[in-house]
Amino acid sequence: MSNKEIYKKTLTFSLHRFLFNTCALIGVGLLAVGGFILMDKLTDKGLIGLAIGVLFGIVIVAVVAHFFAYTFQAGQIAMMTRAVTEGTLPDDVYAEGKRMVKERFTTVAIYYAATNAIKAIFRELGNLLTKAGEAIGGDAGNAIASTINIGIQVLIGFLCDCCLGWVFYCKDKSALKATLQGAAIFFKNGKTLLRNMGRIFGMGIASLVLIGGAFSGVFFLIFSNMTDTFTSLRDELVEACTRNDISLNAFFTNPTNLALIAAVIVGIILWAIVHGTFVRPFVLVGVLRNFTQAGLATKTTEQDYEALTSKSKKFRKLQEKDSF
Q1: How does pLDDT run across 49-68, given as a tens digit for each residue?
Q2: Sign for the pseudo-dihedral over CA of 161, 163, 169, 173
Q3: What does the angle CA 193 – CA 198 – CA 203 come to, to the nearest 5 degrees?
């Protein structure tokens, strides 16, 4: 199956994730607006109510996502991996994906333990590269370190997905053992797999400009007609800054500018949802294929594990845990 065919066949998971994320975003927005209106009427401190509403909404979404939303992402990765390794997919891709997730990760805790382990391993190794940039010193060193860190964080997300795909592929191994092997596969074939970086960042920047820019523009037009709301928000900001003896930049005293900031924030949030739900899986198919092919073509040895053990404390601890 081609990458495009795999993407189209597994798109059902993206649609389910999009619906979930959209409902979650609407829920957070309603809580934020409700908190602002309620506190503004009761205590004339709508800004505090806005913050409480957003925080409360984020907590609720995080709890729900922790226990339910993982099925969509993990199921999609499981089906992509099967398509790459076997060349076919079942008729009911969604049902089979859910079945594989339940079979491989009997509890949500095991799933998050595996992903957190992967992130920890790669983050530790990434810190070595960041320190190399900082060692140059001065502003140039800090800029290099920051750039490296951003790249590492993006790459970590794809590597986690690739390792999870490997966990689904290795049915005869424990999730922990397969996770360790997945990490070793990447660093054994690092030069080959890093060729995906151009595609990863190119697609990310293009979608941010096009999708994020479009959403920001649309919401700025909407918010521009909500003058009373943003005037009230401006008054709240001015009052809060005055009360706490904080100097407020003149830019933030203009309701139109506040509408622009709000539009950009909403645009970025919606871009993150659309990009993560539809664009990123398209990129992931190619990355996952390269990773899996590298894993099947090369055999991990004790030397590969030892190389990672010397660089990552987390990898060493997990390897020790796996030996019991």
Answers
A1: 778 878 877 777 777 766 67
A2: negative
A3: 120
